[in-house]
Amino acid sequence: EEFAKEMRERDERWEKERKDWEERLQKEMKERDERLERERKEWEERLQKEMKERDEKWERERKKLVKEWNLKWGELANRLGTMVEDLVYPSLPGIIKEEFGIDVEFIAVDVKKRINGREKEYDAVAIAGNYVFINSTKSKLKNKDVDDFVNDILEFRTFFSEHADKKLIGILATLRIDEGVLKYAEKTGFLVLAVGEKLMEVKNSKDFKPKER
Question: Which InterPro entries match (predicted)?
Answer without folding.
Answer: DUF8196, Restrct_endonuc-II-like
